[in-house]
Recover the amino acids of this structure.
């Protein structure tokens, strides 16, 4: 189903972008091709269902989620090149029917489930290098905000990744998240024991804010600007060659400033 791209588009947005939920097998395969380019070829990840021959990054969640796709109409759909941005969206009701969220493999989600609130898991977020930092990302966030408002979502969550699996090299950023952005205990998932690594690596009074933020991926900083919070502990994902942190956003607990940003389709920098 299309996602009101005309309403989402601003005057500065190029006319060759559209945004929609995947409506065909071609859209899905193009999303998986983009994910392969980013997660496998760029970041060195892998997985049991990754199709290296066809260059498709896929898993068993793909049939049950909504794939929010940024479309570049200048690119060839026949070559599976037309999807240049993607978010994978899994609502709580669908996860209940399916039996699990993706994040269950890395974090204990009991606090979120016990909250009884409408949940949305965000996953496999990636953008083609040629579109990073531009109006394409604005369109993705704009459509995501529409989706959240349309479905009455109150808590958004997902894992965000640092490249590499050595937490010591990420200590300033991880420690900053732990000391300054930890979620309240009643909503705070904890990393599963088999991949758990403490993020409390540097005492708060020894942290350099600039160093911590320089080493932090742009997507994580964007969520923090919207009032995002983190779970307890990082998860070391060796298959994807990443150190993952759990991010959640409670729309009901947003400050007025954060809510104004969000509801007016704030554009991350």
């Amino acid at each position: 189903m299309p996602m009101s791209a005309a309403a989402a588009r601003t005057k500065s947005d190029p006319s060759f972008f559209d945004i929609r939920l995947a409506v065909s097998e071609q859209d899905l395969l193009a999303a998986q091709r983009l994910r392969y380019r980013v997660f496998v070829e760029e970041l060195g990840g892998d997985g049991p269902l990754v199709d290296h021959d066809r260059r498709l990054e896929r898993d068993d969640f793909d049939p049950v989620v909504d794939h929010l796709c940024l479309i570049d109409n200048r690119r060839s759909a026949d070559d599976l090149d037309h999807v240049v941005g993607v978010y994978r969206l899994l609502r709580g009701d669908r996860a209940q029917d399916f039996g699990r969220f993706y994040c269950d493999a890395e974090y204990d989600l009991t606090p979120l489930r016990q909250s009884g609130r409408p949940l949305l898991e965000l996953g496999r977020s990636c953008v083609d290098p040629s579109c990073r930092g531009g109006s394409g990302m604005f369109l993705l966030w704009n459509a995501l905000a529409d989706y959240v408002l349309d479905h009455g979502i109150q808590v958004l969550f997902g894992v965000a990744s640092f490249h590499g699996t050595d937490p010591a090299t990420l200590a300033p950023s991880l420690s900053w998240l732990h000391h300054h952005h930890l979620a309240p205990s009643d909503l705070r998932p904890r990393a599963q024991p088999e991949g758990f690594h403490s993020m409390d690596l540097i005492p708060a009074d020894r942290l350099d804010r600039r160093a911590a933020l320089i080493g932090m991926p742009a997507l994580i900083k964007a969520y923090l600007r919207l009032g995002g919070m983190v779970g307890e502990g990082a998860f070391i994902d060796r298959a994807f060659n990443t150190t993952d942190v759990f991010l959640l956003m409670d729309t009901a607990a947003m400050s007025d400033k954060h809510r104004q940003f969000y509801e007016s389709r704030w554009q991350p920098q």
About this structure: The longest helix spans residues 25-42. Confidence is low (pLDDT under 50) at residues 1-13, 265-269.
